[in-house]
Amino acid sequence: MTKAEIASEISRASGIDKVIALTVIEKLMVVVKDSLINGENVYLRGFGTFLVKTRAEKTARNITKNTALVVPAHPIPAFKPSASFKREVAEANVEKK
Question: Where are the beta strands (DSSP E) in 12-73?
């Protein structure tokens, strides 16, 4: 599902204009991204948490030059779904089988 399809679905379900729904989605994405950039987690009760994890330092290999290089520890964005979110998805997928 694309951002435009999400906006269309919100527009249809709520009766608001599709352009307004798209604007709200865009702003939500900006707020979540800015919060993660500033090191703040975003908690959406019943949905999940957007958070910043730290990927550990590791040694990688450049196979074309046959050399080793160190990839330093670095932050990465992550999403952890809530327990209810995971349960609903699991139940819906069991019913489809």
Answer: 42-44, 48-55, 58-62, 67-71
- The H or E element containing residue 69 is strand 67-71
- Neighbouring-strand partners of residue 71: 58
State phi, psi for 14 to the nearest 5 degrees: -105, -15
pLDDT for the residue 97: 61
With a cut of 50, list the residues of the chain below it in pLDDT: none
Write down the pLDDT at residue 93: 83
Helix (H) or strand (E) holding 42: strand 42-44
87 CB-contact burial (10 Å; exposed 0-12 / middle 13-18 / buried 19+): exposed
- Evaluate if pTM is beyond 0.70: yes
What token pair was written down for 10? 């919100």
Q: Are the C-beta atoms of 54 and 75 separated by less than 8 Å?
A: yes
Give CA–CA dist 24/11, Å, rounded.
Answer: 11
